[in-house]
## 1
Amino acid sequence: MMENYTNVLIHAARVGELDVIRELLSRGVDVNVRDEKGYTPLLIACYNNRPEAARLLLDSGADVNAGDYGGNTALMGAAFKGLPEIASLLISYGANLNSQHGNGGTALMFATMFGRNEVVKLLLESGADTDILDIRGQSAFDLAMQQGNHEAVTLLA
């Protein structure tokens, strides 16, 4: 029975159904449950740009640094999608700016590679480490150069 609740909670997080999220959490559904890919409700809410749902989950004890089975965190998802409001929310709840996924990538690298320069600025202002290298030995600066992301090159220089 709880497994059905897990799916309902993850769906509610995806679509931002705050009342459903509150009800399920009040029934004892684990705020950090995972689906088959390792996504938590917080990861899903953030990736789908649901800041109110993300805040509710965080206030209910969601692990801000939980990663999916590939090591991707909510902050990485926000960086990849270019969601500064979500990124800012996660940072305010103590998200680890320098977490690395399975290939060594960080939120800053995602933001740089995909031209999400508002998120690049936010991460740099928040103290993200620019010296981290991925498994290929590339830094965020190297990735900005390769992508021709001139604004990020300037920000990272």
Note: The chain has a mean pLDDT of 96.
## 2
Amino acid sequence: MVSSSAVTTKVTTGSPYQLDQNQVSRASSALLRHIKTQQVDKEKTATKKTLIGDNDDDSDAEDIPLNNEAVWLVLTTKKHVVDKNRLKPGKITIPHSLNASPSLSVCLITADPQRAVKNIVADESFPQHLTSRIDKVIGFSKLKSRYQSFESRRQLFSEHDVFLADDRIIMRLVKTLGKIFYKSSKRPIPVRIAEIEKVDGKKVKKDPKQRSKPNAEDSAFASPAIVAKEIEKALNSAAVQLAPATTAAIRVGSSNFTPQQLSENVEAVVKGLTDKFITKGWKNIKALHVKGANTMAMPIWLASELWVEEGDVVEKTADDDKAIEGAKNDKKRKQIEAGEGEKISEGGKKSKKPKAVDDDEAASLSARKEKLQKQKAKALQDGEESGRKAAATPAKAEAGSTKKKRKSTS
């Protein structure tokens, strides 16, 4: 039975380019409930109990510990994202952190020299709750030399929960770390840990020629307070890295979130995407969905139109209708004329029909035809006579040979 209810709802007041909080809350509740049901059913039907399902007493399904499954926001745009600045890795601050665990293991990848960053993390003014989480600080040159093999990169990947990277080297990590990082949710999150030069309160732009030098990143690092603030901001953000395509996925929550927490994160990420990452903002968004790792996508917003700018839409007028009708009539007339000049042969191929000729041409054609018929009749007659002569010659030769045989025997 097909439901007549709408898939998504739009706001009744204000701009249509905004989320309906009720729709986001309903989708979040249904998705989290479905993920939890899936995990409970999987534990019940498993032939071998896993660690999360080992309970001595017969507890209810509500008491069964569940996996912390990721929840994603799926973005679909009307046009490809092609701006290189928007395709760089970025982050959007969210109200409910995805990295709130106190036992979180963080790996910080920095520009050379790494010793300067290690000293910053070990500084007394650096927050202790961040120092305890940062288990590894590694420079870019050592990262390239130590983790060349796939097995070593996979081991690094499994040892830490979150990877932060200096924004000056973030684009070079794609080739260095490889697909094991960039096909997962552990893509490095950019952080700004370099000191920013300011004159009269304004940021000083660096010379492009200086940036292209091999040791361009060997500049001074920011103070421990600024570095700590940037790391804290990165841990409380959703990582964003768009592809040059029309679809992208951003992790916005986990299965242990409440529906309200997930809804608030979704709204914050959508606002950040439309403000910073997507060209033309809301007008370039085709659809927004939320989904789990192994669930179907649930729509929370669908565009009513498929164009980006109003200028892309051409209003159809009466003149356009006449022009279209005239083009159809011309095409039909040409097809009819082409059909009269052609006929279908028995083999299925089209052969052209002979064109009409006048009286003089008809008289010359008939005379030529009659002449050809006479030549053909004469050729046939000559052929028959030559055939009779050829048949008579072997008979005479045979008679002569017989007479010679008789004389020799006598």
Note: Residues 359-409 form the longest helix (51 residues).
## 3
Amino acid sequence: MSPSPPSPQLRISCLTMAAAALGGAAMHLLHVPLAWMIGAMAATAALAWHRPVAVPGWARPAGLVFLGLGLGSTFTGPVLAAVTAALPVMLACGVLAILSGLVVAPLFTRLAGTDLQTGFFCAVPGGVIVMAVLAQEARASVATVTLAQTMRVLVVVLTFPPLLGWLAPHGDFSDFTGARVAVWWPGLALMAAAGLLAAWPLRLLGLANPWMLGPCALGITLAATGHLPSGVPSGLVDAAQVAMGASLGTRLTRSFLLSSRRLAIASMISAGVLSVLLTLLAVGIGRLAGLPSAAMILGMAPGGMPEMALTAKALELGVPLVLGFHLTRTVLCNLLVGRIHQWAVRLGLLG
């Protein structure tokens, strides 16, 4: 009996991932910063313009598990102490980043033709999932917020890595750089299994990025206490980039881009304004606090936590410091965005 042919969905997924990997490899050969993610996203988006695309449901979570372990393993004891010392700056920058949404929301509203409350959730540089959930609770347009937040991440992913790679002063990152640990495959397998277990309760709690946060917390604990059994090979981090880039690219279908042209343009312009505003704040605060400007720019960048942490890793710009900024902002977004929205409505800023 001959084997049954693969299902159409499996063929679509295989073709999508093959295109994503080839796109990432092409960008890698061209020495583009964050090559595997940007190349995978571009190739998947090009494919999505002409035919259906899909990424296996397990690909992005699996990539995030190894990315979280790899990023967490950079937090040795001294590095963790240095990052903890910068916590007041991280908290201040996180609040300023959220408040920047109030500044950019009127511009977004005028360009996109939305109401101010929806514009606020579109403009705040939080995670796509977090902002969508908060928008739903505030009875704002979830679809509009999801599209705007997705476009913001795309704009930042496509602009910050090359600009920082070519223009930004790199400075001294020795306080935020730990020694690399050799890869020991049995230890890595145990870490991956433990990382999955650490992610599961966070997923049940409904937190954003549980597949990254749980393994990252595990990696930080093991590295800071000197019990890290294995490093994470760069090949797995590259594979995580491909999975994340392909996931972003699948959203850029013909119907998505053409049916929401005004909103997409408004999202790109407001993302650019937000990026300039936060970059200026990052440089100024970095000089006052004595922290490296490039890491501060990435730490305050209005991109997603996985994407910005990967950019820091690819450009060797103080991964733990950048990750610390984005972890702090993620927590603050969950705690403060809803309250700031209510406060702004009462004061008539969003009414």
Note: The chain has one domain: 9-346.
## 4
Amino acid sequence: MVTAGSRGDGMRRANLALVLRTVHRAGPRSRAALTEATGLNRSTIADLVGELQRSGLVVETASAAQGRVGRPSPIVQPDPRVVAVAANPEVDALDLGAVAFDGTIVVRERLDQHELLTPERTAALIADRVTAWRDGPLRDARVVGIGVAVPGPVRAADGLVREAPHLGWADAPLARMVTDATGLATHVANDAALGALAEHLFGAARGVDDVVYLNGGASGIGGAVIVGGVPLGGAGGYAGEFGQNRPGIVDPSDRRAADGVLEDEVSRALLLAAVGRGSGDDAALAEALAGDADAAARAEIARQRRILATALANAANVLNPAVIVLGGFLATLAELDLAGLDAQVRAQTMPACAEGLTLATADLGEDRLLVGAAETVFDATLFPTR
């Protein structure tokens, strides 16, 4: 990008970032379409696209348009050789992927773990896979950084993991550790916040400015809120911990943990146990729930859906979102009868807040956290305006 510090250079950086962000998040565009989308004139767009091409950030390809009079405008699109590595440490595995700037998942691996990951081992495993991929699927790629989605509160200023309780982490300087191990700039954030970002930009909440997102994983339930198109971070960046709220439980027999929080009551582990599986990821749970469940399993599914519905209604009443998106095992639980869960939520939501409310499951599926983690890298590295 531009490195000089004059006011004119600042405007140019902003315009470069605007064009680059447009083709990355809104999709490939002709120069004419970029002119319309950005409000910049044709000559400025031509100049900016030329610089982005020379910087290796975009490529132009021939238009597929046929039968039009005149020369077709080439299509500007993100250069797929620009890649961010993304990781998600959990209690049972380390998920890793390389996400290209055009949205393609270049490579994806799940490293199952039989003991809890430490921050040190997480950094070492990421470094090992980056080295291996650079000799393989990323041989011709330009790796611009690493993003890590962590199941716990993360200090926004420096990527310090304040607490990942299910992993046993406290005040872990994970961003620095991964950077030291890989030599690459690293950005760390809460997993649910990154899932919300991915679904807001590219998935079920695309084009929606007011969103509540709940993510269900092996470590429990996290959440995030987007208000007016802007993520709600809170004073320290810890907002959205829906899993730590104490749900309203009408029937005392539904309670499984004395004074338990939402993630104690709505749990992937409890669902797996109900269908006779001691462990498994979201795919294994979905497969198990798709089969014929016995009466005890059906009762546990119904219990969790009742409690989840109350939690979602509380969120709708407080935040008045346009869409609530569920990811991970919460999506699996909801998709057993999405319309039925929607009705349960609406029955407990104020009519004014229920108007226009949509309950949806994550469009990006198992890729949502990796896509969100990669986006933090692209945003910090490729779109600077100062």
Note: The chain has 14 helices and 16 strands.
